[in-house]
Amino acid sequence: WNRKLEPETAAVMSWIKSYPFVLSANLHGGSLVANYPYDDNRSQTNGIPNPTPDDDVFKMLAKVYSNVSFFFFFEMPHKRNSNLYRSSLRARAAKMARSQESSVHAELRRQEQAERHAALRADETPSQSQERLEDQATCHTSMRAAEKLLQTHLRLEEQAKRQRALIATETLLQTQIQLDVQAERQAALRATETPHQTQLRLDEQAERQRALRATETLYQTQLHLD
Q1: Within 13 Å, how many C-alpha atoms sit on residue 174's CB side?
Q2: Does residue 124 contact residue 133 with C-beta atoms inside 8 Å?
Q3: Three-state SS for 50?
Q4: pTM greater than the 0.70 cutoff
Q5: Which of 21, 56, 124, 159 could link 128 by a cystine bridge, Cβ 3.0 to 4.6 Å?
Q6: Which stretches in the chain have pLDDT values below 70?
């Protein structure tokens, strides 16, 4: 709606029309922000939203980028000595170490984690166990309620990938132990959840089933029906 376009703006517009693409990003100097369409409006008045049909996707991408960007969260000097900053550094270091470890080291790390968790579970009282399960259920419920459809799909795909990797490497005894632990955990969660949490869980299960049905082949559908 500008009456006169700058030459570089007109060139970029022509380029976009000539080479259509799904998604793009560009870096620019100035304020530390993550811009997404449209950050302007016809009246050119600040504070007036002008969202695109893909507004949810753009917001999700901007949040993902800003959440992993060091300068978005830690540019201010007073944040550099905060617990959040130190926790982020430890998390980044742990993630880097995990990306470089071998499958043997990864398995040893998971076993050590399982042993530590088992020791903590053995020392806790029934009330502490109940409180932990309730906190986990509340945390999971709030996370599921806040995520977008794309985030849900990515989470389910990641869960399925992890499950396939674990199942491919575990022994028959490990499989049975895993099933017993899952059954015990599910029973404990069912016993403590509220009617609202039960409904959310059932809705999530139905959503997962629909996602699986939408991606399965005709042969897989026939096997499922048989």
Answers
A1: 8
A2: no
A3: coil
A4: no
A5: 124
A6: 1-3, 29-32, 44, 69-89, 92, 219-226
